[in-house]
Specification:
The complex is a heterodimer of chains A (316) and B (446).
Chain A lengths: L1 H7 L12 H35 L2 E2 L7 E2 L3 H7 L2 H31 L7 H9 L6 H11 L6 H8 L14 H9 L3 H13 L3 H9 L4 H12 L1 H16 L3 H6 L11 H11 L3 H29 L3 H7 L1
Antiparallel strand pairs in A: 1-2
Chain B lengths: L6 H24 L16 E8 L3 H17 L4 E8 L1 H13 L6 E3 L3 H7 L7 H5 L28 E13 H7 L10 H11 L10 E4 L6 H10 L19 H15 L7 H7 L11 E7 L13 E4 L11 E9 L6 H12 L3 H7 L3 E2 L2 H4 L2 H4 L6 H6 L5 E2 L7 H17 L5 H17 L3
Parallel strand pairs in B: 1-2, 1-3, 5-6, 8-10
Antiparallel strand pairs in B: 3-8, 4-6, 4-7, 4-8, 4-9
Helix pairs in contact in B: 8-9, 16-17
The chains are: A mainly alpha (316), B alpha/beta (446).
Chain lengths: 316, 446
């Protein structure tokens, strides 16, 4: 494909090159191969995105035709106490679970980057939880956090601590969901591990010659050299955290007393329980705007803390 | 001659292909799922009726399938009912989607969500059919005075009842005998219940090993409302299309506070965690750890195999008043049904000829007196079943019909009752919060 583009520049504007039969066949094959994805994108992603944007300005209950209401849904949204509660829950969850998750996955990656026997098996074991589907994991955590018979409280009881009513006490329910979120650390850990293995060993050797301590090596070599990985994991973490649905839906249903009412759960309730598709669409667009702004902020701040070796080379 | 395909052309043709695909999908969605069968005598069309009911477990589901098979056998060559059973959590989504796809079912089982369908003009007025079947309105056989709640426009029936459920009072005979206490009957009062609960409770604090009374379904808003009704209150100004939530009215607050006090002040009934602690995974009554319980008549079949003797009675009276809650089960027919006559025939047959089978099966309580009071209905039923059924004539509908009822329940009622039963707020605070949120929702209109 790149060759064709190159060849195209050899001809005057507006004049198409005559291509050989096999080249034309190759082009057709390429388009055929990508067409399922492109068609899927148009029908199942772009179409619903455009539809939800239009519906967000309507009152639509799927039973009757949508009625145009202008900005009413958006105005109502900002006056809706439960929307602010849901936003609060999502923000608290993101602020705690994302940095903590990054720290834990980096810690696990550092441990699994050691040259010890059986490390490959350990890496597989740590990664394995991420391949189990969301609902099954949430069900598992629901049982683990069962106040009377859950493993968590049984273990706490062994050390003399009376565990709380995790999922039915509004002071603890969100904490329980945050803890459950660490189940999927394996994905970020694997990316960190790849980043750690990409750090040139001569950097550490030079530092050792200079007499750097382990802490100094971690702070001045490891962290900067994997900052692009942290950036990647942070962006994905923020997006994932603000869209959390399954754990809350299965473990608490948004309760108790809306203590775990996440934005996406409230959106689901509005759309599929109350059939307020227009209102839910408006909420989806506001959620999208929040995610977009936060992602842009992270991107904007990245020159201050993300180190790219390639940029350094270019600058040099 | 073959010309190379530019990216722009490709994207154009892909978009066109996608449109065609989408149009094709939509067209296939709009196509009837069940074509009208041509069967029986040559030239005679069989009305195929697509019916939907939610799943209630293997026994009741099998009874429903058998009901459809019996109906089809009786109406061979004329009507064929295709009954589909779906889990509850998929039931209403399926119905809503069938409406959205403009291919609704012909008939489906009623619950409060269907009121939204009535409000959207999607349900058929059944009155002309009912008028043509006068046996359905025989006051000797049916509690027709209670049917008014299903005349949503004040005149016409939009759903045809076939069975009912009622809130009842269950008691463990063995535990009452051990304590030397009489069995509750139709004259039992809340005062007697409290005295009995004190005697029946064994242990204190975390060490309670037996409770006299479990609130059971009184935790639900419709359960708590029965006590408020008896005290002269009501949670809404009316059942159909309420305009005001009035939880803060004194009798309502009094009822909620009374129940909360039973849990937290008097300690005569277990909290959720106490109940879970003593009888994990089951109800205290079923485990033989609570002597008395308020629960719906739907629990009857679940208690058939318990290891103790038990009976049932109408709800206790508050001084001298009792107002139980009841619920109708029945069918609605869609406005755009292609087989409304066949669909109504199924509903009519279920409410008349099939009633005796319903009595034998014990899965639902038939509306027809002949069946409801038959020997088959009482066979294997606990003592007091007759007086409990008779209390339907004192009962009010335990529902609220509003197109925003789901929002009302989820946003205004459940979270506040949750806090009330957890002793986080007082009854007056819960009532005020429910009124504030509930009335906001009601004021948005239907």
């Amino acid at each position: 494909m790149a060759e064709i583009v190159k060849e195209a520049h050899l001809y005057p504007r507006g004049v198409r090159p005559r291509l050989s039969r096999w080249r034309r066949r190759e082009i057709l094959d390429a388009y055929l191969f990508i067409s399922p994805t492109v068609i899927g994108l148009l029908v199942f992603l772009l179409g619903p995105i455009i539809a939800s944007a239009v519906l967000s300005f309507t009152d639509y209950d799927i039973l009757t035709a949508p009625a145009w209401v202008g900005l009413d849904n958006y105005i109502q949204l900002f006056q809706d106490g439960l929307f602010w509660q849901a936003l609060r829950v999502s923000v608290i969850y993101s602020v705690i679970s994302v940095p903590l998750g990054l720290a834990l996955s980096l810690g696990a990656a550092l441990l699994l980057n050691q040259k010890i026997r059986g490390v490959a098996i350990l890496r597989s074991i740590y990664y394995m939880p991420t391949i189990i589907s969301g609902v099954a994991v949430a069900m598992l955590w629901r049982w683990l956090f069962n106040a009377q018979f859950g493993m968590v409280n049984i273990l706490l009881g062994k050390i003399g601590i009376r565990g709380p009513m995790w999922l039915t006490d509004e002071r603890w329910a969100l904490t329980a969901i945050i803890i459950a979120s660490f189940w999927g650390l394996g994905g970020a850990m694997l990316i960190y591990l790849a980043g750690l293995q990409g750090i040139p060993s001569e950097l550490y050797e030079a530092a050792e010659i200079d007499g750097a301590t382990e802490q100094a090596k971690f702070r001045y070599i490891t962290l900067p050299m994997i900052s692009h990985v942290t950036f990647f994991n942070l962006v994905l973490g923020i997006i994932g955290a603000l869209q959390l649905f399954t754990d809350a839906y299965v473990m608490t249903g948004g309760g108790p007393n809306n203590a775990t009412l996440f934005l996406s759960l409230y959106l689901y309730r509005q759309a599929f329980l109350y059939l307020k598709m227009g209102y839910a669409s408006a909420m989806a667009w506001v959620l999208f705007a929040i995610v977009l702004i936060l992602t842009l902020l992270v991107f904007k701040s990245s020159p201050m803390w993300v180190y790219y070796e390639s940029e350094r080379r270019r600058a040099a | 001659m073959f010309t190379p395909l530019s990216r722009r052309e490709f994207l154009k043709s892909t978009a066109a292909g996608a449109m065609l695909l989408a149009t094709g999908s939509l067209a296939s969605c709009a196509a009837p799922l069940a074509p009208t069968a041509q069967d029986g005598a040559p030239g005679a069309a069989v009305q195929v009726v697509r019916a939907l009911m939610w799943s209630n477990g293997p026994i009741i589901d099998d009874n429903f399938k058998k009901r459809a098979a019996d109906f089809n056998e009786l109406h061979k060559g004329a009507i064929e009912i295709n009954l589909q059973l779906l889990p509850w959590d998929q039931y209403w989504s399926k119905i809503d989607l069938s409406y959205a796809a403009r291919d609704p079912y012909d008939i489906y089982f009623w619950d409060i969500q269907a009121y939204g369908h009535y409000k959207a003009g999607l349900l058929r007025n059944l009155q002309p059919f009912v008028d043509a079947a006068p046996e359905l309105m025989d006051p000797e056989q049916y509690p027709v005075a209670l049917y008014d709640v299903w005349r949503f426009d004040g005149e016409n029936l939009y759903a045809l009842p076939e069975n009912f459920q009622i809130l009842a009072f269950y008691y463990n005979k063995d535990l009452l005998d051990q304590a030397g206490l009489p069995y509750p009957d139709e004259n039992y009062t809340w005062d007697a219940l409290i005295e009995a609960s004190k005697q029946l409770k064994q242990g204190e604090g975390d060490q309670v090993t037996q409770w006299g009374f479990d609130l059971g379904d009184l935790h639900a808003w419709w359960g708590a409302q029965t006590l408020a009704w008896a005290m002269g209150g009501a949670f809404f100004d009316r059942i159909v299309e309420p305009t005001r939530m009035q939880m803060s009215d004194p009798p309502n607050v009094q009822a909620l506070q009374f129940l909360q006090d039973l849990l937290w002040k008097d300690n005569l009934a277990p909290t959720f965690s106490q109940a879970e602690f003593l009888a994990p995974g089951t109800s205290l009554f079923q485990a033989g750890k609570a002597a008395m319980l308020v629960a719906g008549s739907w629990s009857l079949s679940g208690y058939k195999d318990v290891a103790f003797n038990w009976g049932i009675a109408p709800l206790p009276k508050w001084i001298d008043t009792r107002v139980p809650a009841f619920w109708f089960g029945g069918w609605v027919i869609t406005r755009d049904s292609k087989a409304p006559e066949g669909a109504f025939e199924f509903a009519r047959w279920s409410a008349t000829d099939y009633q005796q089978t319903m009595a034998v099966n014990h899965d639902w309580i038939p509306l027809r007196k002949e069946a409801r009071e038959s020997a088959a209905m009482f066979e294997g039923m606990p003592d007091g079943f007759d007086i409990t059924l008779a209390s339907i004539f004192e009962a009010r509908l335990g529902d609220v019909y509003h197109s925003r009822s789901q929002e009302l329940l989820n946003e205004a009622i459940f979270p506040n009752l949750e806090q009330l039963w957890a002793n986080k707020i007082t009854a007056a605070q819960a009532a005020a919060q429910m009124d504030e949120k509930g009335n906001q929702i009601l004021q948005k209109g239907a």
